[in-house]
Design goal:
Chain A has about 230 residues and is mostly helical. In chain A, about 75% of the residues lie in helices and about 0% in strands. Classes of the chains: A mainly alpha (about 230), B alpha/beta (about 350). The interface between A and B is medium-sized, with 29 and 36 residues. The complex binds adenosine-5'-triphosphate and magnesium ion (MG). The site of magnesium ion has 4 residues of chain B, from helix 1.
């Protein structure tokens, strides 16, 4: 049987989908890591990005962090984190936390860059008018800069999420769940259908989540920022 | 009244943008700050609402030092219009205009009512109120900027080159509206421009500034043209200031009677230039009957340049005469009906009679 057929067979076998280790259960686990990581990354990167964009201070951080983090190998970080945390934590957490740290590290740069760029791209005239009308610094940020930055903040989050979902397979390496299980277990048992099928499911999941986030983006971005040109 | 009391602004890099400026800007009037680029107009304007803090000296509004009030609170009480409008792209026109009322803590309904009124005053439609800035032309955006500055009913409005980014026709329209609005509301307007024509046509008072933030002259437009304080002001006001001054000169010219012809009426050959009018007596144009005669048709009528209204300035009367193919300037009454014509010489004679 060729690879395509093997993959198809695995994907269409109801047994692959159900049960504790099935595709559905692993997808849920995968999504849980992914959203946790995105949330944690956003909690760090969005405030920092807003601050850098609003004050213009620490710009080098926003610019260089992205490049620096990209150069660090995910697997290396994972093993170092496990080695450091294993003696200190007990149970699943000792493995889960290192995996999350890797994902968060990966997600911070795109969210930070998007947020910073979005705030920084605020029309200087709009910012000047806002101050001139009597907005305080935080009002300018809240009422003018953040709403204007929403398109770029959202694309930062979406880019980060795509990376997270792809990389979350890494959790399986340290014995955790998620769709990475199919890649690791498939390789161990030379079940190439399962490996390839697992990869296909990861891609589909990433696509579905991105579509969902695109819908959120439409909700939170003002139509004034997407409609262009006079008239209509 | 806004008073500048020996105000100096030196920026951190050592540039002195405004030097010992003392100026009394009258309330309920339009005062224009004009001068070459970089002479400190914007800096002076922005010190009024504390967007720039003076290095020394004081600025008083109705006797009260602006630095005694918290900056944000002060700014909410003063309208602010800038060249690029600076609208918030994520907000509709209505919501943009509601900004200051909302900052002042008005409830939504009241803010909305005030904004709707301001939008209408600024010459925008209710339909445009629901649009986003990106869906408006530059001129319309500038109107929104004005509406946004007026919505909370401030007594003072600061405008920094509000019309320099729009085309001349729209600019003239917006300038007329500003005059009308200012008259209606009785507000104090301080407007910055580097366009001397704009300064002379809009300002009740004009402050001419020179490089380094010095005040060269503060006077009415007519006085600036008639008696420039020095060579700088004279050259800034322009080479044709003698002609411009006519724009502020009222002259007693009584129009000569002019025979008018309606379309279809017979014109005898050799009657020279004849003035065609419509049924209400409003001018249509001139027809050349020097070598032609017959019933007047529309195609025979030539449009003309300017028409002067009764009682308008010498400049407009003279312009009407000079732009007419017959050299006779058409003068109309308040309904637009022809009263008669004037010759350039009539205007010049009247000017001579006035100055002797
Ligand atoms: N923030 C600043 N820091 C340093 N120098 C400044 C600053 N703002 C303005 N200046 C300088 O102060 C001087 C006056 O500037 P200002 O903007 O008041 O001029 P302006 O008359 O409004 O000119 P323009 O017609 O070009 O707008 C200029 O020499 C300018 O370079
Ligand atoms: Mg300026």
């Amino acid at each position: 049987m060729n690879a395509l057929a093997l993959t198809w067979e695995w994907l269409t076998d109801p047994a692959s989908w159900t049960g504790a280790g099935g595709i559905l259960a692993q997808s849920v686990a995968h999504l849980r890591y992914s959203f946790l990581a995105l949330l944690a990354a956003a909690l760090v990167a969005v405030p920092v990005g807003l601050w850098v964009g609003h004050t213009g201070r620490g710009r080098w951080l926003a610019v260089n962090a992205a490049g620096a983090v990209r150069a660090v190998p995910s697997l290396g970080v994972l093993f170092i984190a496990v080695l450091l945390l294993l003696p200190r934590l007990r149970g699943e957490l000792a493995f889960e936390l290192p995996a999350l740290i890797v994902l968060v590290l990966l997600a911070v740069p795109p969210v930070l860059a998007g947020t910073y760029a979005g705030v920084q791209a605020t029309d200087p005239a709009a910012r000047d008018a806002a101050r001139g009308m009597g907005m305080t610094g935080t009002q300018v940020l809240r009422l003018v800069e953040i709403p204007g930055a929403m398109p770029l903040i959202m694309s930062g989050l979406r880019a980060a999420m795509l990376q997270i979902i792809g990389t979350a397979t890494i959790a399986a390496i340290v014995g955790l769940g998620g769709l990475g299980r199919f890649l690791i277990d498939g390789q161990a048992s030379r079940d190439y259908g399962q490996m390839a099928g697992g990869a296909v499911v990861v891609a589909l999941l990433a696509l579905a989540v991105d579509i969902a986030l695109a819908a959120v983006q439409r909700l939170v971005v003002s139509p004034g920022l997407t409609t262009a040109g006079p008239g209509r | 009244m806004i008073r500048f009391d020996s105000v100096t602004k030196t920026y951190d890099d050592g540039t002195t943008a405004v030097d010992e400026l003392s100026l009394e800007i009258p309330g309920g009037r339009i005062t224009v700050l004009v001068g070459p680029s970089g002479c400190g107009k914007t800096t002076s304007l922005r010190m009024i609402n504390r967007m720039v803090e003076p290095t020394s000296g004081r600025i008083l509004i109705d006797g009260e030092d602006v630095s005694d009030r918290p900056a944000a609170q002060l700014r909410r009480s003063i309208g602010y219009v800038i060249q690029q409008a600076g609208l918030f792209p994520h907000r509709t026109v209505l919501s943009n205009v509601m900004t200051v009322p909302r900052l002042l803590g008005w409830d939504r309904a009241r803010a909305r009512a005030a904004a709707t009124e301001a939008i209408e005053k600024a010459g925008l439609t209710a339909q445009q109120a629901g649009r986003y800035p990106s869906q408006l032309s530059g001129g319309q955006q500038q109107r929104v900027g004005v509406a946004r500055a007026l919505a909370s009913g401030p007594q003072i409005v600061l405008m920094d080159e509000p019309y320099s980014a729009v085309d001349p026709i729209v600019r003239a329209e917006l300038q007329d509206e500003l005059r009308r609005l200012q008259g209606e509301l009785g507000i104090t307007v301080v407007l910055v421009t580097h366009d001397i024509d704009e300064a002379l046509s809009l300002g009740d008072m004009v402050a001419v500034m020179r490089y380094g933030g010095h005040l060269a002259q503060f006077a009415t437009p007519a006085e600036l043209l008639a008696r420039p304080a020095d060579d700088f002001v004279a050259s800034f006001v322009g080479k044709d200031r003698g002609y411009r001054a006519l724009g502020f000169a009222d002259v007693a010219v009584s129009p000569r009677p002019e025979r008018t012809v309606r379309l279809g009426e017979a014109v005898p050959a050799g009657s020279g230039w004849v003035l065609a009018v419509d049924d209400a007596g409003r001018p249509l144009g001139w027809a050349d009957a020097r070598s032609w005669g017959g019933p007047l048709t529309e195609s025979r009528v030539r449009r003309f340049g300017t028409i002067a209204r009764l009682g308008e300035s010498a400049r407009l009367l003279l312009d009407a005469a000079l732009s007419s193919p017959s050299r006779r300037g058409v003068v109309v009454d308040e309904h637009g009906a022809v009263v008669g014509t004037v010759l350039a010489d009539d205007v010049l004679d009247a000017l001579d009679a006035r100055s002797t």
